[in-house]
């Protein structure tokens, strides 16, 4: 059981920054959408374009 817990801790530590960045991008897009609905879509699209560009370049 301890082996499984250690493996989960390592996996969570690896994914935590990525999950935080996705949550932050979603919160920014949502906040922009509360101010002006089309801005939320534009900001969300810009984040998706940035992620796609980084993935195509081989970044993490």
Description:
It is a single chain. This protein has 60 residues and is mainly α. The chain has one domain. It is built from two helices and no strands. The protein has helices at residues 2-35, 37-57. Helix 1 (2-35) crosses helix 2 (37-57). The longest helix is centred in the N-terminal third of the chain and has 34 residues, at 2-35. The relative contact order is 0.09.
| Element order: H for helix, E for strand | HH
Terminal Cα span: 30 Å
What is the typical, i.e. mean, pLDDT? 90
Number of domain units: 1
- Main beta sheet: strand number and arrangement? none
Helix content percent band: over 70%
The coarse overall form would be elongated
Please mark out the parts with pLDDT under 50 across 5 or more consecutive residues, or reply none.
none
Which structural class should the secondary elements be placed in? mainly alpha
């Amino acid at each position: 059981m301890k082996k499984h817990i250690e493996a989960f801790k390592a996996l969570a530590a690896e994914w935590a920054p990525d999950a935080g960045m996705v949550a932050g991008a979603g919160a920014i897009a949502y906040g922009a959408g509360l101010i002006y609905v089309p801005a939320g879509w534009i900001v969300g699209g810009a984040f998706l374009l940035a992620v796609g560009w980084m993935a195509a370049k081989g970044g993490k």
